[in-house]
Amino acid sequence: MPPVGLRTLNSPVFASLVPVVLFIALGFVAARAAWIRAAAVKDLSNLVFMVLTPALLFRTMSTVHIETLDFGPVGIYFAAAALVFGTTLALQGFTPLAAARALAYTFGNTIMIGVPLIGLAFGEAGLVTLFTLISVHALVLLTGATVVFELAAARERAHTPGEPPPHMLRTVLQAVKNGILHPVPLPIIAGLLFAQTGLVLPAVVDKPLQLLGQALGPLALLLVGVTLAFSKIGTGLWPALRVALIKSLLFPLVLAVLGLLWGFGGPALAVLVVTASLPIGANVFLFAQRYDVAEAEVTASIAVSTAMALVTLPVVMYLVARFVAV
User: Fold this and answer.
1) CA-to-CA distance for 112 and 243, rounded, in angstroms?
2) Complete DSSP assignment for 251-265
3) Threshold 0.85, pTM exceeds
4) How many Å apart are CA 123 and CA 244, to the nearest integer?
5) Is 128 left (phi over 0), alpha (psi -120 to 50) or beta?
6) pLDDT digits over 175-194, tens only?
7) Rounded to whole angstroms, how far apart are CA atoms 314 and 145?
8) What is the Cα Rg of the chain in Å?
9) Domains of the chain with CATH codes
10) What are phi and psi of 321, to 5 degrees?
């Protein structure tokens, strides 16, 4: 049997989290060394949000054939996410701040951490379940979050002193329009429609999109580290810890309970519960920057949840093995 230290290095959790921690740390060091100035962060964020994210989302969705996917277990995942998201808005108010926290509670790092972790822990069968979720993960959560952000922002503008109250129907229609004509939902919808035609992207188009998409994860995580270096966390550490705990423990608990109550179980539900416990995804940080809300809290939450995952993920995987994957 390998020594304990070697077993730790080879564990799925450790192997999946180390690259993420390193990218965040590199961004932090680059900012502290003044290799990246604070004034450039917004421009880099726009590059990630407006160029790299659409490339990845369109290419991912361009190969999704809905009729081949089993959405039974995945539906439980989104039901749990909707419950947590809706409860957050009900308790904290229909505001961009509440929307940012709700997205942080429910949107995980399914690509950079989820794929290697699930592959190592559950094998090919687990990856089939995860890829089914990933195929619509951004479509459902990010598109829904975009509409909520737009509606919440419109609601805040409507209550601005001195501003005449806009017509409610016009406000809703404008928010929905802004939610669709947006760098996240638009490429998702376009890619999904393209996939249903049965066509295949030519290599001359597919290869650049692939390279742009591959750059998204590392650059987004570097930006998290950069923003962390420029942020004054201070009292924001406790809110970040609360957000991280809800994402890492409460969300997967809600999912597990719903799944078991509705008669789902076994390896598929186990994969989804572990996926729900993944650290917060960097896309939440991009939304916080775009809507200029809770940037420091979200940035700290991503870092805290990633560090905590070294403890919380093994705990969740142990509980899943005992109570869910049976």
Assistant:
1) 20
2) HHHHHHHHHHHTT--
3) no
4) 27
5) alpha
6) 556 555 667 678 877 888 89
7) 29
8) 20
9) 4-323 (1.20.1530.20)
10) -60, -30
